[in-house]
Amino acid sequence: MAEEPTNSFIYSKLKEYVMDKNKALMLASVIFGIVAVLHLLRAVLRWNVTFNGFKIPLWLSYVAVVMAGYLSWLMYSAGKK
To answer: I need a labelling partner for 13 at 20 to 30 A (CA). Which of 40, 54, 67, 76 fits?
Structure first.
């Protein structure tokens, strides 16, 4: 385990800015949730996405909705523990 630095003032100020595990998991959950909603909107509204001349298939958004939604739920449930 890491020892506390000798300058405790700097350590205490740095500790104020470090995010704890549960807050980080909740933030990740929100980000994955937003990604899932955006992919769902793309799939329902049939938005075309072209990347470097290649048209991204619409079915890929359905896969991304499931994956991002699952990750969002997983991060949320892990953050509640």
So the answer is: 76
